[in-house]
Amino acid sequence: MAVEKMSIAKALNESLRLALDTDPKVLIMGEDVGKLGGVFRITDGLQKDFGEDRVIDTPLAESGIVGTAIGLALRGYRPIVEIQFDGFVFPAYDQIVTQLAKMHARSLGKVKLPVVVRIPYGGGIGAVEHHSESPEALFAHVAGLKVVSPSNASDAYWMMQQAVQSDDPVIFFEPKRRYWDKGEVDTESIPGPLHKAVTAREGGDLTLVAYGPMVKVCLEAAAAAQEEGKSIEVLDLRSMAPIDFDAIQRSAEKTGRVVVVHEAPVFYGSGAEIAARITERCFYHLEAPVLRVGGYSVPYPPARLEDEYLPGLDRVLDAVDRSLAF
């Protein structure tokens, strides 16, 4: 067993390195991914080791980056595209939604586009709007796209491997404020399926459902609630499209109460779909309405206000208390 403690950033770097080393058809493209190694140094050292024709510094043109990746995928390559910040993806939204997501169905299954679009997302780093967005629901809504987000180093390493190996396009959201969180990574133990949810903490009174950056907050909330005698289960969704509704249902039937937590605004967020689906599936098992905790429906605020904007421990615990009060 090869177990190593590493940060999420390091785990992603090692996973990308393995993908490049294993398959000569794998390419990495993006703004400053080569000589600089990326703004967050996720691709650090890869161009030096694999060359400028495998790790490609592109112009500042997101639509062109994704469009080029689609063309490369049509010719048999497996491009990994980096969007430098979450808010920069919107110039490429047309290419992703109208071409990348639709080509498989448009060709009646004859064409596959194995493209991974990496997007550092979310707040907590003191950046301004367009650098701290959480647009995952926009992509999860689009048929033909897989949408995933790891919450820890082990998942970052393995989910990237699985995303690169997928013949379908994958939008890979990386929680940027967790890049430096460390955890153990077993580089030899192959995990379960890419879209399977994982129970991060067992509990019996209520289920917190989260993904990406909010899993850590939910684990902290569960630990705090335990001091008051409350047993909270934390389910790490890992995937927003498809969603492992069976895992959520099992946990909901076990605890009778569900709170969905995400950093994106609550309004029309992925928590709405989860709440509706679990209410349909588990109505007679629920002891309380499915509650949602998330960001506010406002443009992302300046750095001095982001602690007020981001859902933190107190807001999660408040939802836990409201649910248990029913």
From TrEMBL:
<dbReference type="InterPro" id="IPR009014">
    <property type="entry name" value="Transketo_C/PFOR_II"/>
</dbReference>
<keyword id="KW-0786">Thiamine pyrophosphate</keyword>
<dbReference type="InterPro" id="IPR005475">
    <property type="entry name" value="Transketolase-like_Pyr-bd"/>
</dbReference>
<dbReference type="Pfam" id="PF02780">
    <property type="entry name" value="Transketolase_C"/>
</dbReference>
<dbReference type="InterPro" id="IPR029061">
    <property type="entry name" value="THDP-binding"/>
</dbReference>
<dbReference type="InterPro" id="IPR033248">
    <property type="entry name" value="Transketolase_C"/>
</dbReference>
<dbReference type="Pfam" id="PF02779">
    <property type="entry name" value="Transket_pyr"/>
</dbReference>
<protein>
    <submittedName>
        <fullName>Alpha-ketoacid dehydrogenase subunit beta</fullName>
        <ecNumber>1.2.4.-</ecNumber>
    </submittedName>
</protein>
<feature type="domain" description="Transketolase-like pyrimidine-binding">
    <location>
        <begin position="6"/>
        <end position="181"/>
    </location>
</feature>
<keyword id="KW-0560">Oxidoreductase</keyword>
<dbReference type="GO" id="GO:0016491">
    <property type="term" value="F:oxidoreductase activity"/>
</dbReference>
